Amino acid sequence: MSSKLIALAALAAAASMAWQSASAQASGPVSREQRKAETAAANKAGKLTPAGEGAAPLAAPASGPTKTLEQRKAETMAAAKAHQLAPAGATQKADVADAARAPTKTREQRKAETMEAKKKGEFVPAGEGSAAPSK
After folding, report:
1. Which residue has the higher pLDDT, 11 or 45?
2. How far apart, in Å, do the first and last CA atoms of the chain sit?
3. Nearest-angstrom CA–CA distance, 49 and 57
């Protein structure tokens, strides 16, 4: 009884592999030129995923731009004169608020604290960030 079961399982596996092989060959190999044409068409349609860990491409807007280049430049210049543009680099609200806040210690106070921490061995060594070995 068990030999019939093994033979049936082997036959099913062989049939499955034969079907997969036949279906893969039915579409035929794609030439390099065909692959390049498909990729170029997808690129033109905006359907390629950007490099890196980016998200899937966004759908293109249904209509063209609503403002001309000159209008956008004029708006940007007006916002710059009114100091409404976000600073370059980090633009998180917390970062901007930290940059706007006045320091609470002088440079000399910070240097003195750093030297004291160095004397006590409280610095974290460069690299992995593990604590310094105890002596």
Report:
1. 45
2. 73
3. 5
